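The step that takes the researchers longest sounds almost clerical: writing a folded protein down as plain text. The outcome of that step, for a single protein, is printed below.
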Amino acid sequence: MAEAPTSPAGGSHESGGEQSPQGGGGGGSGVREQDRYLPIANISRIMKKALPQNGKIAKDAKDTVQECVSEFISFVTSEASDKCQKEKRKTINGDDLLWAMATLGFEDYIEPLRIYLARYRELEVTKRSLVLFNIFFYL
């Protein structure tokens, strides 16, 4: 049976006895908590946007969402990485992540992310063009 993931708060959801990697008795993976999880401040900021201004979020709720988000990212990234390895590529790109999400059953998110990715790429091209323009203009 697979070992339950270690939570950012230091315990396992199933056994309650594991320690976080940073806590000194982790599951032997050698990965530091700060490398495995997204920063709690970022998670908290995003969660607060969905609440009324005076809404409060419990620490364990933040920790749980932090763990879930990080696990989701690892899940999708692992699938995309497998695809890249089969294709003998070393770099995962946005299209690989979209493919992985579709493969894993997250089809409802594909179209909004595809639109976002296209806009992001357009902005990157515009930024590069401006940089080149400034380089040549000021030479």
